[in-house]
Design a protein that fits this description.
The complex is a heterodimer.
Chain A lengths: L8 E4 L5 E6 L12 E5 L6 E4 L13 E6 L2 E6 L8 E9 L5 E4 L3 E5 L1
Parallel strand pairs in A: 1-9
Antiparallel strand pairs in A: 2-6, 3-4, 3-7, 5-6, 7-8, 7-9
Chain B lengths: L2 E5 L3 E2 L5 E8 L9 E7 L6 E7 L4 E3 L7 E6 L4 E6 L8 E8 L6 E4 L3 E5 L2
Parallel strand pairs in B: 2-11
Antiparallel strand pairs in B: 1-3, 3-8, 4-5, 4-9, 5-6, 7-8, 9-10, 9-11
Classes of the chains: A mainly beta, B mainly beta.
Chain lengths: ~110, ~120
């Protein structure tokens, strides 16, 4: 059972917009700690996609955006492309777990 | 460009100690205010943070693993290491090393990962 809750799967057709939610609690996201998002393509290491809730590292397309409100955060992907099919993970800090970094359970994005 | 590479045995017997090293290239492990982490992923499952170490040697670990984990850093070799004691089959996973960037400390660089299987 992950500290951060994500839907197991989402799907969308090419060109569409999808969102992935990440729900936490008052000891992590709700306490104001930042949320980061990672993309993991099949058979590869995770890659940083969004950091500090809304920021994109250099090289990440503008199609990817992040937001945060209350105890939840979201990743939005617009103009869906076949290459976006991957697993996506949210991550934050939890003050109730001795300074642990915590991950969501991951969401499998399928491009129809 | 910073690169990380995990190394260590791919097979460990139950009850023994898993030992992995992460070698950092493309920059000094001591430069900047970075921390260095270990993260693992059982096959078909999600990511689990194991712990982190600074170049001064301060650490903190996932409470669920803390009693079995030791982390160390060797700045002269640009490496940091993980030891996980008393392993069981549940510790079988791909183990990643990663850099924790500047605030707010996302995992901004990752190694390719190394599969460690616990089996007799």
């Amino acid at each position: 059972q992950s500290v951060l809750t994500q839907p197991p799967s989402v799907s969308g057709a090419p060109g569409q917009r999808v969102t992935i939610s990440c729900t936490g609690s008052s000891s992590n996201i709700g306490a104001g700690y930042d949320v980061h998002w990672y993309q993991q393509l099949p058979g590869t290491a995770p890659k940083l996609l969004i950091y500090g809730n809304t920021n994109r590292p250099s090289g990440v397309p503008e199609r990817f955006s992040g937001s945060k409100s209350g105890t939840s955060a979201s990743l939005a992907i617009t103009g869906l492309q076949a290459e976006d099919e991957a697993d996506y993970y949210c991550q934050s800090y939890d003050s109730s777990l001795s300074g642990s970094r915590v991950f969501g359970g991951g969401t499998k994005l399928t491009v129809l | 460009q910073v690169q990380l590479q995990e190394s260590g045995p791919g097979l460990v017997k139950p009850s023994q100690t898993l030992s992995l090293t992460c070698t950092v290239s493309g920059g000094s492990i001591s430069s900047g205010s970075y921390h260095w982490s270990w993260i693992r992923q059982p096959a078909g499952k999600g990511l689990e943070w194991i712990g982190r170490i600074s170049t001064s040697g301060s650490t903190n670990q996932n409470p669920s693993l803390k009693s079995r984990v030791t982390m160390s850093v060797d700045t002269s070799k640009n490496q940091f290491s993980l030891k996980l004691r008393s392993v069981t089959a549940a510790d079988t996973a791909v183990y990643y090393c990663a850099r924790m960037g500047t605030y707010p400390q996302p995992f901004d660089y990752w190694g390719q990962g190394t599969l460690v299987t616990v089996s007799s």
